[in-house]
Amino acid sequence: MASVQTERTSTPRAGARQPAVSLVTERGKTVGTTAVENAIFKCQDVNVHYGDKHAIKDVTIEIARNQVLAMIGPSGCGKSTFLRCLNRMNDTIPTARVTGTITLDGQDIHDKRQDVVQLRARVGMVFQKPNPFPKSIYENVAYGPRIHGLAGDRVELDEIVHTSLQRAGLWDEVKDRLGQPGTSLSGGQQQRLCIARTIAVNPEVILMDEPCSALDPIATARIEDLMEELRQSYAICIVTHSMQQAARVSQRTAYFHLGDLIEVGETDRIFTNPRHKLTEDYITGRFG
Amino acid sequence: MNSTSEVTHSPASGNAGVRLVTPQETQAIVAKSLRRRYWAERRFRAYGAAAVLLGVLFVLFLFTTIFSNGVGAFQQAQIQLDVFYDPELIDPAGTRAADDLAVADYGAILRASLQKEFPEVAGRRDKRELARLLSSSAPFVLQERVQANPALIGTRDTLWVIASDAVDLMKKEKIDRSLPAEQRPLSDQQLAWFDALTERGDLELKFNRTFFTTGDSRDPENAGVWGAVMGSVFMLLLTLLLSFPIGVATAIYLEEFAPRNRWTDLVEVNINNLAAVPSIVFGLLGLAVFINFFGLPRSAPLVGALVLTLLTLPTIIIASRAAIKSVPPSIREAALGMGASKIQTVAHHVLPLALPGMLTGTIIGMARALGESAPLLMIGMVAFIVDVPQGFTDPSTVLPVQIYLWSDSPERGFVEKTSGAIIVLLAFLVVMNAAAVILRNKFEKRW
């Protein structure tokens, strides 16, 4: 909640230097192909309002399985807000209002029959700041399986914890101290613990909201490697401020600007041949 | 902001009208103000230290007074007597019937024993004077012993029995013996017996068991705090059982579940206002609602607990809400993002982290409830109650009210009882808070 608001207060800065809105020729018309093969998420005309503020405007995009979609854009452009629509985390903000349709595997996530708890079990989330629970490393990973009843007994739970930590590339570092608090780990380890915690529930999509912004380059590199591995099994959406990171880890990139989805396409294409003026300005470092 | 300061300080700004301050001049200005700044800090520290010192002195003075006055209450003058359980006096019929044992004149046995110590005493008046050295409750000691073991009848025994209030005070040197006889509670003759008993080692100050085992009494030497202690225990136990769950549940609901609208604002304002309501008003409320309307018994810990629950709830709710608010939102997001339901998020993550803060609020509330007397006066807990309460509906009083009652009693002996009861109250408070702090530290596992 706090992070969304800070982003939003800083909005005018990007706009002040570049009277960008005028450059969006047609509202809601995104440059590039929004549709993909093998889509898991399909978002149609998604709008988000925070009270009076129109944070997301008519965003239409599809998210593919086994791919990393990077969302880039200046601060306050709504990429985090959009990410939080996908697992309905915006529900926790009383003033937020989401319209439009978002379907997960053809099922509307705002449908009455769609349970939000189940949705969040299917769509895991890794946050900007590593936020392990103030419990042991083991308990952190075991928490999801436990509340969802995924493990029949202790042996199965141990197995899930083991596998998840291994897939998150953390097992070797923590196997001898699973009983120690999760918060005793370094920042990079904590973030990998959060990823392990997320994949322990066996989701279909992992949402990452600037997962490396609080990490040093070495820890960042580890997380990026991890994302490449995880992509084999999951659809991943990552919000990032680092264009290099977007270029390194993603297959598709979406560029947001002041709540509009300006351009979306293959990452290689976006970074070598952006079609929209705003995208070009942003990735060449003219603003943002 | 950076850009503006650059403009005014940069020599290249070209603003010829403004004379620019050189770094040396700036340093001189700073150096000049330094002394004043440090002096202000030293002055502030001195004020703080003086305030703390003054506070400590007052506390020391208070404690010295209370302890020097109250320590006497833990001791009591007792007289050693050779007692003959005379079958003629206890059970002339020789049936050993329980009814006979209960109504026998044990006072006569004690009087006989005392007269044996002073065989020279003759005449009714002198004998009565002599008997007044003993407490009016002394015969009960014999009665209890005989009732517990009728085989004692016909045997001899050496016993320490409770002396009268006047002897007690004289023994503790709380009475000036140089006063004229008519201004002393002990006559010249009694004083002579007193000295004789002391000399023989038959009059000593012993640990005052009575004070810790009995309820109130009109006689200072027979008065005890146990009734008030048990009243306080029953009342606080119930207060805790009621106010902690209700307070925590209210705080959780208001903080985590309730929508933000005019109604919840109204509730919030009213909770904050309740915390400032004078406690006697709660007493009146309790009298009107619990006793008059619901017909609950008067002077009962049950009603006291209900009133004190109303009194402590705002404190606990406010502290608990603050504790819940201080749980970082990232923890909630993490749990919700994992697919935990709202109640799971609260129960598994928010509550454990907020519990130490909630317990702190509860400690403060309970400490206040323990020391509260005004609302309890309204619901009849100010009555003179001799029996130690056995349950939540028995008539009882509580420690602060007992202190108030004793401080108001005319008998000289109650002065030290008052201070003694204050010491017991403080000890109660210390034990209760220590338990709560230990409990809190146990939960306060910082990961």
Ordered list of secondary-structure elements with their pairings:
The complex is a heterodimer of chains A (288) and B (447).
Chain A lengths: L1 H8 L1 H7 L21 E12 L2 E12 L3 E5 L6 H8 L9 E9 L2 E2 L7 H7 E4 L10 H12 L5 H14 L3 H4 L12 H13 L5 E5 L7 H14 L4 E5 L3 H7 L2 E6 L2 E7 H6 L4 H7 L5
Parallel strand pairs in A: 3-8, 3-9, 6-7, 7-8
Antiparallel strand pairs in A: 1-2, 1-4, 4-5, 9-10
Helix pairs in contact in A: 5-6, 5-8, 6-8, 8-9
Chain B lengths: L1 H8 L13 H48 L4 E10 L2 H4 L7 H6 L2 H12 L6 H8 L6 H11 L7 E7 L2 H7 L16 H13 L2 E5 L1 H5 L12 H32 L4 H13 L4 H15 L7 H25 L3 H9 L4 H30 L2 H5 L20 H9 L6 H30 L4
Antiparallel strand pairs in B: 1-2, 1-3
Helix pairs in contact in B: 2-19, 5-7, 11-14, 11-16, 11-18, 12-14, 13-14, 14-16, 15-16, 16-19, 18-19
Give the chain pair forming the largest contact, with residue counts.
A-B, 32 and 24 residues
What radius of gyration of chain A results from the CA coordinates?
A: 19 Å
Low-confidence stretches of chain B: 1-13
Number of strands of chain A: 10
Helix tally of chain A equals 12
What is the average of the pLDDT values of chain B?
89
- How many β-strand stretches of chain B? 3
Strand order of the largest sheet of chain B: 2-1-3
CATH H level, superfamily name of chain A: P-loop containing nucleotide triphosphate hydrolases
Annotation field: number of helices of chain B: 19
Terminal-residue CA separation of chain B: 39 Å
Query: What structural class do helix, strand and pairing data of chain B support?
Result: mainly alpha
The helix fraction of chain A, in percent, is 25-40%
- The CATH first-level class of chain A comes to Alpha Beta
Beta-strand level of the residues of chain A, as a percent range?
15-25%
Assembly state (oligomeric):
heterodimer
Radius of gyration of chain B from CA coordinates: 33 Å
Instruction: Please tell me the overall pLDDT of chain A.
Output: 84
H/E element order of chain A: HHEEEHEEHEHHHHEHEHEEHH
